[in-house]
Design brief:
Structural class: mainly beta
Radius of gyration: 17 Å
Largest sheet: 12 strands, antiparallel, barrel
């Protein structure tokens, strides 16, 4: 009973900190930022996220070869043309080498490519990814991000990530230049493991900015290859995956 009460309090705090803004994508990883390690080959992950007040994000991640993870995300809502978000990651030992790309989809938008490398460690019991990178066509800007995850109750995980760059670089009416100018994100949430193939997230996003908001996400996980051992949705501290 005490655990349920504490969980309810934390969810209420996260929701209270959130009001309005845009949406994040990514079906594997933390909230907005990727993990250093890729998921097991043959893994397909599909997520649908609702962000207050009216935006949705559809996201897919697929691991066609060992260590190679591909992702796609698209914001949907308000009859706007949003730039598709693409991610590519390759894991070598505990290191991840990847690219986060944003492609122009309307007049006045631009393409952006952020290349990064990241590594994954256990820090005081938290599954932690630390990444550094660089965005092309935005000279002189070094990128930095971190993600954390820890099981706080059975099948309930605390997740958090932050970065010194925005979720999207292209401006749209629902993602104004004032949001981009903040040039950073801080996200905090809870991940509930419903079954080995289904999870549910509730999170506060952009918590340090005036445009903070909350989101809820449903994510399904599928193992496409035969004879593949079932992999937990969330990695053990000593056996991490994307």
């Amino acid at each position: 009973m005490k655990q349920l009460l504490l969980t309810g309090i934390l969810v209420s705090v996260i929701t209270a900190l959130s009001s309005a803004a845009t949406v994040y994508s990514g079906a594997e990883g933390y909230i907005a930022m990727p993990r250093a390690k890729a998921a097991r080959d043959g893994r397909l992950c599909a997520g649908l996220k609702y962000s207050y007040p009216s935006l949705f994000t559809a996201a897919l991640n697929f691991v066609p070869l060992p260590g190679l993870e591909l992702g796609f995300g698209l914001d949907i809502g308000n009859n706007l043309v949003h730039p598709p978000l693409i991610s590519v990651k390759y894991q070598l030992f505990s290191l991840g080498f990847g690219m986060l790309a944003e492609f122009a989809s309307a007049e006045g938008q631009s393409d952006y490519y952020t290349f990064y490398f990241a590594w994954q460690e256990d820090i005081i019991g938290f599954n932690t990814t630390i990444g550094v990178g660089y965005t092309l066509f935005n000279p002189g800007i070094v990128r930095f991000f971190m993600g954390f995850q820890k099981e706080i109750f059975p099948k309930v995980h605390l997740i958090c990530d932050f970065a010194n760059f925005p979720y999207r670089f292209n401006e749209t009416p629902d993602f104004p230049s004032s949001v981009i100018a903040q040039n950073g994100i801080v996200n905090l949430g809870l991940r509930f493991i419903v079954t080995p193939f289904l999870s549910f997230d509730i999170a506060g996003n952009d918590l340090m900015d005036p445009e903070r908001y909350f989101s809820v996400t449903v994510t399904g996980y599928f193992n496409l290859w035969q004879n593949l051992k079932i992999q937990p949705i969330l990695p053990n501290i000593t056996n991490k995956s994307g």
